[in-house]
Amino acid sequence: MTNAFEGVETLIFGDGPLGFLALFGAIYAATFAIYLGFGATMTLLMRRYPERRIQPGRRGEKRAWKEIRQSAWSLVATSLCVAVGLTMQAKGWTLVAPLALSWWSVPLMFVVAMIVFDTWFYWGHRAMHLKALYPFHQFHHRSVAPTVWSNDSFTFVDALVMQSFYIWAPIFLPIPPLVLVGHRVFDHFNGMIGHLGHEFAASKLTRAPSPMVCTVYHDIHHEQFRYNFANFFTFWDRVGGTLHPHYDRLVDRWQEAGANPNLAEEAASGTSARKGDRSLEGHSSAYPRESRDERRLGLRSASPNRAGASHDEATVG
User: In degrees, to the nearest 5, what angle opens at C-alpha 306 toward C-alphas 300 and 308?
Assistant: First the structure.
């Protein structure tokens, strides 16, 4: 068993404002470097698998530079939250002390963090879709067909609200600092894969009875707006009635496409590989109707016929 802060000392650059700024700067630099490096790698890799594109009729990468610029700003809020959480733990400004690192505390608290974060994310995300708060979240939904660059494309307020988990979680949970950092890194990669716009992970582990998700899960949220609000698991969407009604069957379709690459185009187009089964048509890539929520909030899928609008992004009007 080791001290909870062993290995974190190098992240704590002394006391006072300068020490905090150094910690914040290190977190931001590392996070933005991961964002750029992983994003560039996956962008190049996805060019080799066009048949895996979930929305073949849209090109979300047209918004890449807009999203990179916005992400550079929103990651300031994310890094600030992590820096505040670590500093509070280091100074003992929490209600519970972090557990010492051990063979059981690390996996236990990592799983606890995932469950608690998913609960926070689901309800916080639904709150951001309320009319009063949606203006702070709307920029993220400009991407109807998300790409790896979309993950951190938030307004500063949106990012601050959703990532404030890293401030309050250390106050109430005995999560070791290294586990907190590890959870943040995992969530960052998980989120970028979730916005990838290409499906590779569909399997029995990403549909009922498993609570896990694949890329199609969040892609549906960007395209349909009113479904699939959670992050790691489908539990809260199933409980709250917000899981897309065809999600499990879409996972099956993409799993079939993984076993037979010739089916990937069918999976993307929403047509059925099973003769006579038309139940999934229009439910994996094309949603021509606006939802009641989209109309209520003034969000409309962009049309080429609208001045300055792109088929690949949503606008407010």
Answer: 105
